[in-house]
Amino acid sequence: MNSGDWAAIGAVVAGLVAVVALIFSIRSTIASERAAKSAERAAIAAEAQTEIQRQIQVATAQPYIWVDVREDESQGMLLDLVIGNSGSTVATNIRARIDPPLPAHPQLEEGVKAQEQLAEGISSLPPAAMIRWHLGPGFSLIPPAGKQSHQITITADGPFGPIPQLTYVLDLANMRGQPIRPQGSLHLLTKAVERLSNRI
């Protein structure tokens, strides 16, 4: 073999080494890109998880305002319009619209005025607080047949700003046929004392 042959062999070997180096370089680049994409996906997932945790914290720290019609706790015959806060923080700028307005007994104007007051707004309602107004006796307010639906829309502010608007339907017909039962033993105790006083 002369010097030209050795030069040719050297050139071929050098070419093979360059090709192998290029292959390793490409593989290394692909691996680096995959690692970068994996790290990016992990970062996005971590950011999404952080946002979920933040939303959970916000949701648990928000007030939860509701409006309902319930039996009066003292004697059970009257129906009360009730607004309450079942959340863990104070609600402010509370507005509750009832459409159409709930019926109220003619001699109990407070039930009508209460609905107007709720529509105009209540300044604040702390956690576990409830406000009640008499609407009238259930037998005069609950329809004997059919539905009596009222749409309730509630807006309020919490510690993180406005809470999502809540809209739902309240149907008084769902209360039809419920027995009149005063709540708790205090009412029964009062009646027992009254009967005893009458006997004496």
- Which stretches are low in confidence, meaning pLDDT under 50 for 5 or more residues running? none
Q: Tell me the series of helices and strands, N- to C-terminal.
A: HEEEHEEHEEEH
* Largest sheet entry: 5 strands, antiparallel
Helix content: 40-55%
Supply the helix-strand structural class: alpha+beta
Q: Report the count of strand segments.
A: 8
Distance, first to last CA: 139 Å
User: From the alpha-carbon coordinates, what is the Rg to the nearest angstrom?
Assistant: 36 Å
List the total number of helices.
Answer: 4
Give the overall form.
rod-shaped
Beta-strand content = 25-35%
pLDDT averaged over residues? 83
Write the layout of secondary structure elements.
Elements: H1 3-60, E1 65-71, E2 78-85, E3 91-99, H2 109-120, E4 122-125, E5 130-137, H3 138-141, E6 149-158, E7 161-162, E8 166-171, H4 186-199
